[in-house]
Amino acid sequence: MSEVFEGYERQYCEASASLSRKCTAASALDGEKKKQKLSEIQSGVEEAESLIRKMDLEARSLQPSVKAGLLAKLREYKSDLNNIKSELKRISAPNSKQATREELLEAGMADTLAVSTDQRGRLMMTTERLNQSTDRIKESRRTMLETEDLGVSILQDLHQQRQSLLHAHTTLHGVDDNIGKSKKILAAMSKRMDRNKWIIGGIIATLVLAILLILYFKITH
């Protein structure tokens, strides 16, 4: 169902219940107080008519499968409002108290009041269901916000872990560079050591040759 329609529907149900109470109160008043109460009821009826027009426009803008059910509800609300208007007209007439007693003696009026009471009962039940739906929507939104906060927290944690991994990767890359440099230094040292071995070997060979020559000369002379 359309949330917009539900909002108008909830407002109408509350307005209808309020108008019913005011009609009951106005029927027991006289004089200026009754005029003031009737003026309040008339204003409330105009607001209720505006809400019904808004519900009608909203229902007709929806898909046929949804529209049919809403228009059926709307017919009940229009009937309920017509009953309220009839009640307003009755209590606005001169000698309304006497007229009330006479009309209540008529079976048709009794049936109308019974239907009106039944409709108002349904309206109250509808209002209760709408309030429950509103509570469920609020709870769903609260859960959605909590889930969103949790998602943001998880993303922040993942970002921090990614930064840590990038830092570790950078550190490992630096270690690899240092190992490469160390290998180059060791290779250079190994080459120098090999070169030094040949030099030392040549020096030793020269010394041995010199010693042998010296011994040879001593022996021959």
TrEMBL record:
It is found in: Prevacuolar compartment membrane. Belongs to the VTI1 family. Keywords: Coiled coil, Membrane, Protein transport, Transmembrane, Transmembrane helix, Transport. Its main location: membrane. This is Vesicle transport v-SNARE N-terminal domain-containing protein. Residues 1-91 form the Vesicle transport v-SNARE N-terminal domain. One of its GO terms (biological process) is intracellular protein transport. It comes from the Eukaryota. The chain crosses the membrane at residues 198-219. One of its GO terms (molecular function) is SNARE binding. It is a single-pass type IV membrane protein. The keyword Nucleotide-binding does not apply. GO terms for cellular component: endoplasmic reticulum membrane; ER to Golgi transport vesicle membrane; Golgi apparatus; late endosome membrane; SNARE complex. InterPro entries: GOSR2/Membrin/Bos1, SNARE, v-SNARE_N_sf, Vesicle_trsprt_v-SNARE_N. Gene3D superfamilies: 1.20.5.110, t-snare proteins (1.20.58.400).
